[in-house]
Amino acid sequence: MNRTFSLQAPPAGPPRPRRAVVLVAALVCVGVALSLTTEVLRHALQTRRALRKELLVRQTDGLAEAGLVRAARRLADDPAYVGETWRLDAAAGLPAGAAEICIEVAAADDAATGASLRVIARYPLELADCVQRSRTVRVRPRASPEEVSLP
After folding, report:
1. How far apart are CA 98 and CA 104, in angstroms?
2. 88, β-bridge pairs
3. Where do the domains of the chain lie?
4. Ordered mean pLDDT values, 10 residues apiece, the chain (151 residues)
5. Other CB atoms closer than 10 Å to residue 43's CB: what's the count?
């Protein structure tokens, strides 16, 4: 078994084409993976923003309903009640900040038809694009405050 080894350098010339193909394929795979990751992250951020906005809308709806209940009870206690601006700060348990509920009472021309309650709720006040919801209902006069009900 005679083996001969040559200490000569490989022939000069272009590098093997296989190395370049593997490198290009690896770079393409990395690019595709990066594109997919970016798209998934973008979609996740959009979904998070939409869910947060929906949460704020639902909380504002709840504040408007609370304002209606408050107005109906106050009107039942005091027929001269004309409304108020009810401010709730973050210490009241609101997670996103302060809220404002404006209550307006418009008496009807006929005392038997009751009054019209209009409530405008804004939440959270700290945001430039705070959510605003309004509710308007007609309340019939009742004999006692315990009988207050909203349609």
Report:
1. 20
2. 99
3. 17-145
4. 67 67 92 97 96 93 94 88 90 83 84 82 88 90 56 53
5. 10
E strands of 7-130, at which residues? 83-88, 99-107, 115-123
What is the strand order of the sheet 115-123 is part of?
83-88, 99-107, 115-123, 131-139
Q: Is this prediction's pTM over 0.85?
A: no
Q: Tell me, what's the pLDDT at 117?
A: 92
Torsion of CA 34, 37, 42, 46, to 10 degrees: 170
Which residue carries 């809308």 as its tokens? 57
Q: What is the pLDDT of residues 86-111, one digit of tens each?
A: 998 877 777 788 899 999 998 776 66
d(CA 134, CA 63): 10
**Read out DSSP for 49-88?**
HHHHHHHHHHHHHHHHHHHHHHHHHHHHH-TT--EEEEEE
Say how far apart CA 36 and CA 46 lie, in whole Å.
Answer: 15
The closest alpha carbon to 141, from 111, 103, 105, belongs to 111
**Nearest CA among 41, 117, 42, 51 for reference residue 86:** 117
Per-residue confidence (pLDDT) for residue 140, from 0 to 100: 76
